[in-house]
Design a protein that fits this description.
Residues 6-249 form the ABC transporter domain. This protein has nine helices and eleven strands. The chain is α/β, with parallel strands linked by helices and 253 residues long. The strands form two sheets. Strands 7-8-9-3-10-11 form a six-stranded mixed beta sheet, with helices on both faces. A five-stranded antiparallel beta sheet has the order 2-1-4-5-6. Bound molecules: adenosine-5'-diphosphate (ADP) and magnesium ion.
């Protein structure tokens, strides 16, 4: 057995006295698409932020493949050194709700900046990949524009291209379409669907239930800092077992 691409075990996280993640364990296998659903305030963003090292865990362990990012010594999480953390950061990409593009950079520079300046890859290779990704995102004619000249849907597709340009093992999305109107949502969901068809490993927090059912292999329903229910996508959406999951899904009917 090889290690899962990402593995989180007994994760705990508080802000002050508020316990946001209470005991979360999950793992993501190569090629798997995991959707995380649940009500607002349930801890979904905090979970992604902990998995992508934007927040530190209070307790529990996190690893990327064979790379132990944080281990739990019994009284809390202990993080690896600088080298471990910087290696871990090459394993994932993150796409935010509000795109978070660099406003003064062109589309092309948004996509090529980190591969050139952080990864220090050869320029011709980075440019070739960026052009290819932008074609794939339907943005081939937008390369020299700046983000404010694009629609929200186009900006989000730039953000996806930017994340992919780092060649991550796994891509995390935090409600990638919740800032978009339905028409623009479609284009972004199609891009994610295409990535799933290519077996890109992804973890997607979403309120799009039918999308989650169709695209995800595994669905996690989170509420109040716990995983309330999880399982094959079809089963969780069409035949939930827990009352709380049923109630939540009924509101998305
Ligand atoms: P979700 O993404 O499921 O809506 P969040 O992870 O954003 O949930 O938030 C879960 C809880 O944690 C909320 O009560 C929120 O107010 C709180 N929270 C999130 N981030 C912070 C923070 N940086 N400081 C204090 N409280 C926070
Ligand atoms: Mg959130």
């Amino acid at each position: 057995m090889t290690n899962p691409l990402v593995s989180l075990s007994h994760a705990r996280k508080s802000f002050g006295k508020t316990e946001v993640l209470k005991d979360i364990s999950l793992s993501v296998e190569q090629g798997q698409v995991v959707a995380i659903i649940g009500p607002s305030g349930g801890g979904k963003s905090t979970l992604l932020r902990c998995m992508t090292l934007l927040e530190t865990l209070d307790g529990g362990s996190l690893s990327y493949g064979d790379l132990a990012v944080a281990t739990d010594n019994g009284s809390g999480s202990v993080y690896g050194g600088k080298a471990v953390l910087s290696q871990a950061k090459t394993r994932f990409g993150l796409v935010f709700q509000n795109f978070n593009l660099f406003p003064h950079y062109t589309v092309l520079k948004n996509v090529t900046d980190a591969p050139l300046s952080v990864q220090k890859r050869p320029k011709d290779q980075v440019m070739a990949q960026a052009h290819e990704l932008l074609v794939k995102m339907g943005l081939e004619r937008k390369e020299n524009m700046v983000p404010c000249e694009l629609s929200g849907g186009q900006q989000q597709r730039v953000a996806i291209a930017r994340a992919l340009a780092l060649n991550p093992d796994v891509l995390f999305f935090d409600e990638p379409t919740s800032a978009l109107d339905p028409e623009l949502t479609k284009g972004v969901l199609k891009v994610i669907r295409d990535l799933a068809d290519e077996h890109m490993t992804m973890v997607i927090v979403t309120h799009e239930m039918s999308f989650a059912r169709d695209v995800a292999d595994h669905i996690i329903f989170m509420d109040g800092g716990y995983i309330v229910e999880e399982g094959p996508a079809e089963q969780v959406i069409n035949n939930p077992q827990q009352e709380r999951t049923k109630l939540f899904l009924a509101n998305y009917g």
